[in-house]
């Protein structure tokens, strides 16, 4: 384990925490460079989920029996962990969801339907993941509102002057990715929030790609909504969270109806529950929440400053390696980047490259990364993407280069 | 590398790099679109059918080496065949690529180079896209073909 106080990271030690990193594929050590798609899970997360099912499985917020009380306290304890992780003011501001996609849909449907009307505008950027495009398109279609897209530069950075011009009295919300999944660009979200707030416009940050890699403090950012996906931050799939400022969440109507989100129900009318339960209908993913709580604890223990520092080193190292290769072009060269390298190799389609690399044990993503507008911007159907986590090593990036060389030989 | 060589045989690499029958037949009698949403591969296929015989076949689009080589060799293979023969060849090829059948190599001729594809489940759709598309074109389907 790393020494948190000094914020350095012992990569060989943390690798031992991840069972899957010990396996081989096609008799070669696994080199997992697809972390932007999903991250691997440390033993403590796997154990937390198993322990939940083995020892305390039962429904939450209902039973008077021991198991239900234990399950409720584990579930609510995990919410407190996420609250502390984001530095939210209160657990009322942390709503469990299935992940970032559901979190954004919740805001689009609840905030959007109640507060966005015909002629209003929603601002997103050209860099967004489909999950921060489509929910707003659906809303715009339903409400007669329109979507305004901040253009990007060749380097993969949001054009702030254009953003300034898009902001107007018609703008009702700005929804921006904190970190681009396709290119790794870390967006200037502080500036974006400040400019929107100057006009009283709330800002949603899609934090799926940021939270696993850097410290996030929603009070310092002063964002109005922040979204998390558990599985991208070393937790289970199927769980995530929405942070929302309490005053905003209070004003928003419920989204899904059902059990747990009500105080009382009669056929004449229903009294909705308090925050955050108002937005949590039905039996939740209790084990997932417990696992996500364990993941947050684990990240705290490793130390996000150490994580960021190591990943910055990996990014510099990997970028230099790929830059030095003949026929390799990197997409996205923003000044502030997370450890994501999107690239293409001359004469080799990304899917063919992905297949060759796979046989070398190297897992990358080949495709449009659910960010087709970014692909259209660069005029390519797809790219190859190596996305790193703190458990990756420089030696693994060397293996990536060797594997790309093999692909170049095969396709020469 | 051996399995990779089975997948990327010389003929596939050659057709992937220098595809035959590229373009569009302006006065085509049959056409269809194919799309592989997962990969983003897109294909537009045009055919000239004279009586019952395919006399010309061309394709345009974007795809990986497997899907490009498959479209190139498919368009070569269907020329001169009647519609019944094309339909049978579609079934035979798809059986080979998915591994669901082991067709007689003589029946497939050069197309047997795609026999390695079935070992790569993630790439089967790349190899079958153009074949699904030609099937749609000759059956007169207006719906774009998708491999999903």
- CATH C-level label of chain B: Alpha Beta
CATH architecture of the largest domain in chain A: 3-Layer(aba) Sandwich
Gyration radius of chain B, rounded: 14 Å
| Whole-angstrom Rg of chain A | 22 Å
The general outline of chain B is globular
Helix and strand run of chain B: HHEEEHHHHE
Helix content of chain B: 40-55%
Question: What does this molecule look like?
Answer:
The complex is a heterodimer of chains A (412) and B (148). Chain A contains 14 helices and 17 strands. Chain A has helices spanning 11-15, 43-56, 66-86, 100-115, 134-143, 160-166, 189-197, 218-221, 246-251, 286-302, 304-323, 350-359, 372-378, 394-410; strands spanning 24-25, 28-29, 31-32, 94-97, 121-125, 146-150, 171-177, 203-206, 225-229, 240-244, 262-266, 269-272, 328-331, 340-345, 362-363, 365-367, 383-387. In chain A, helix 7 links the parallel strand 7 and strand 8 (203-206). Chain B has a single domain (2-146), classed as Sufe protein. Chain: A. Chain B has a 4-stranded mixed sheet, with helices on one face. Chain B is globular, with a radius of gyration of 14 Å. The model of chain B has no long low-confidence stretch (mean pLDDT 92). The chains are: A alpha/beta (412), B alpha+beta (148).
From the structure above, extract its key features.
heterodimer; A: alpha/beta; Aspartate Aminotransferase, domain 1; 7-stranded mixed sheet; 4-stranded antiparallel sheet; 40% helix; disordered N terminus; B: 148 residues; alpha+beta; Sufe protein. Chain: A; 4-stranded mixed sheet; 20% strand; globular
């Amino acid at each position: 384990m790393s020494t948190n106080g000094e914020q350095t990271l012992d990569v060989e030690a943390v690798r031992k925490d991840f069972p899957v990193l010990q396996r081989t594929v096609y008799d070669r050590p696994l080199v997992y460079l697809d972390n932007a798609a999903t991250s691997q899970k440390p033993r403590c997360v796997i154990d937390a989920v198993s322990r939940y099912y083995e020892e305390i499985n039962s429904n939450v917020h209902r039973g008077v029996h021991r198991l239900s009380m234990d399950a409720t306290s584990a579930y609510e304890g995990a919410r407190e962990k996420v609250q502390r992780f984001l530095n939210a003011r209160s657990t009322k501001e942390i709503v469990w969801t299935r992940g970032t996609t559901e979190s954004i849909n919740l805001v689009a449907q609840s905030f959007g339907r109640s507060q966005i009307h015909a002629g209003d505008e929603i601002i997103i950027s050209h860099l967004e993941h489909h999950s921060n495009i489509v929910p707003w398109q659906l809303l715009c279609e339903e409400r007669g509102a329109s979507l305004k897209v901040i253009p990007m530069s060749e380097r993969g950075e949001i054009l702030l002057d254009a953003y300034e011009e898009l902001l107007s009295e018609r703008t009702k919300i700005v929804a921006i990715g904190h970190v681009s999944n396709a290119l790794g660009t870390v967006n200037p979200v502080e500036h974006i929030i400040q400019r929107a707030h100057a006009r009283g416009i709330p800002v949603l940050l899609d934090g799926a790609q940021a939270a696993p890699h850097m410290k996030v403090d929603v009070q310092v950012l002063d964002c109005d909504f922040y979204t998390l996906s558990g599985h991208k931050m070393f937790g289970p799939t199927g769980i995530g969270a929405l942070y929302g400022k309490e005053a905003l969440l209070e004003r928003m109507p419920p989204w899904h109806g059902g059990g747990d989100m009500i105080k009382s129900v009669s056929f004449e009318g229903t009294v909705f529950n308090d925050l955050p339960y108002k937005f949590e209908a039905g039996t939740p993913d209790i084990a997932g929440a417990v696992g996500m709580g364990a993941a947050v604890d684990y990240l705290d223990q490793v130390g996000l400053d150490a994580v960021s520092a190591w990943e910055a080193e990996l990014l510099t190292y990997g970028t230099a390696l790929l830059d030095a290769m003949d026929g390799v072009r990197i997409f996205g060269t923003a000044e502030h980047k997370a450890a994501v390298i999107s690239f293409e190799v001359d004469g080799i389609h990304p899917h063919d490259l992905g297949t060759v690399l796979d046989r070398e044990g190297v897992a990358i993503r080949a495709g449009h990364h659910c960010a087709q507008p970014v692909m259209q911007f660069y005029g390519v159907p797809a790219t190859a993407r190596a996305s790193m986590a703190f458990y990756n090593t420089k030696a693994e990036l060397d293996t990536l280069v060797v594997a790309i060389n093999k692909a170049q030989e095969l396709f020469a | 590398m051996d399995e990779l060589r089975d997948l990327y045989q010389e003929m596939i690499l050659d057709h992937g790099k220098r595809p035959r029958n590229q373009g569009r037949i302006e006065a085509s009698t049959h056409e269809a679109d194919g799309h592989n949403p997962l990969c983003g591969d897109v294909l537009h296929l045009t055919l000239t059918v004279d009586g019952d015989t395919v006399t010309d076949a061309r394709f345009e689009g974007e795809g990986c080496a497997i899907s490009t080589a498959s479209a190139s060799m498919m368009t070569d293979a269907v020329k001169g065949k009647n519609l019944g023969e094309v339909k049978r060849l579609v079934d035979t090829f798809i059986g080979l690529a998915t591994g669901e059948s082991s067709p007689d190599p003589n029946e497939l001729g050069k197309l047997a180079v795609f026999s390695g594809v079935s070992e790569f489940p993630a790439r089967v759709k790349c190899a079958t896209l153009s074949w699904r598309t030609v099937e749609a074109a000759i059956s007169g389907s207006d719906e774009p073909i998708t491999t999903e």
